[in-house]
Amino acid sequence: MTATLHYIYDPLCGWCYAAAPLIEAAAKLPGLRIAMHAGGMMAGNARRPVTEGLRTYVLPHDARITQMTGQPFGDAYRDGLLRDTTAVLDSEPPTTAILAAEQLHAGDGLRMLHRLQQAHYVEGRRIADAGVLEAAAQDIGLDAAAFSQACAEQGGTKTQAHIDASRRLLDEVGGSGFPTVVLETSEGVGRVELGGFLGQPQVFAEKLGEWLDSLPDSEITVADAPNCDLNGRNC
């Protein structure tokens, strides 16, 4: 059975970073397509400057993510980026970059997201900056000129339309924030609980495989899991 795993995320969502190994494991399952939907958590008027208050707020959440999943946070992020009050967190440019990567090669959108998460949370880089995005594209093997052209095609109104569509999907499936994951097959659609799988990507992939093999006889579990809300809280 072919199926689609809809992944509603934001590149600056800490709990999406926590879930990254799960999504990466799911992407390796045969017959399962990953459809990415960026929600613009910190785009437009929701862009957020780095402040000491922001740093104080996010560090305990980051520590919880590491405790639950083992995902690392680098010193360059904690004591570099999060102390740089000239930096602005903006989801739109990295979202455009992810759309551009996917346009160039199916599957590279997810690779770009994971590279940008590492750049942000480990390397403390400004992933809204064009130079950082271009370097990330080259890191995953994309041609610089082709990537630049794809960004020009995917930016602006196309990125905003993508964000708007992602928000509508989130509302349709009853999601409360990022990440929200939905499994769609010919038998129907169901939200997938991630909380019990955080830190266990192989277990998650095996369970997805079981669901794919047994649908429609099995029921997908829906349960609360840590996430970032639409305004970037709890993140």
Note down, in words, how this protein is organized.
This protein is α+β, with helices and mostly antiparallel strands and 235 residues long. The chain has one domain (3-229): Glutaredoxin (3-Layer(aba) Sandwich). It is 49% helix and 14% strand. The chain has nine helices and eight strands. It has a four-stranded mixed beta sheet. Strand 6 (180-185) and strand 7 (188-191) form a beta hairpin. Helix 1 packs parallel to helix 2. The longest helix is centred in the first third of the chain and has 18 residues, at 52-69. The protein is globular and about 50 Å long. Residues 216-224 have low confidence and may be disordered.
Summarize the structure.
The chain has helices spanning 14-26, 52-69, 75-80, 92-104, 108-121, 130-139, 144-154, 157-172, 201-214, and strands at residues 3-9, 32-38, 48-49, 88-89, 177-178, 180-185, 188-191, 228-229. It is α+β, with helices and mostly antiparallel strands. The strands form 3 sheets. It has a 4-stranded mixed sheet. Strands 3-4 form a two-stranded antiparallel ribbon.
Shape by Cα distribution: globular
Low-confidence stretches: 216-224
Helical content band:
40-55%
User: What is the helix/strand order?
Assistant: EHEEHHEHHHHHEEEHE
Q: Largest beta sheet: what is the strand line-up? A: 2-1-6-7
Structural class: alpha+beta
How many distinct helices? 9
Proportion of strand residues? 5-15%
Q: Specify the biggest β-sheet.
A: 4 strands, mixed
Mean pLDDT metric: 92
**Total strand count, please?**
8
Name of the CATH first level:
Alpha Beta
CATH topology, by name, is Glutaredoxin
**CATH architectural grouping:** 3-Layer(aba) Sandwich
> Using only CA atoms, what is the Rg?
17 Å
User: What is the distance, rounded to the nearest whole angstrom, between the alpha carbons of the first and last residues?
Assistant: 35 Å
Q: Could you name the CATH homologous superfamily?
A: Glutaredoxin
Number of domains: 1
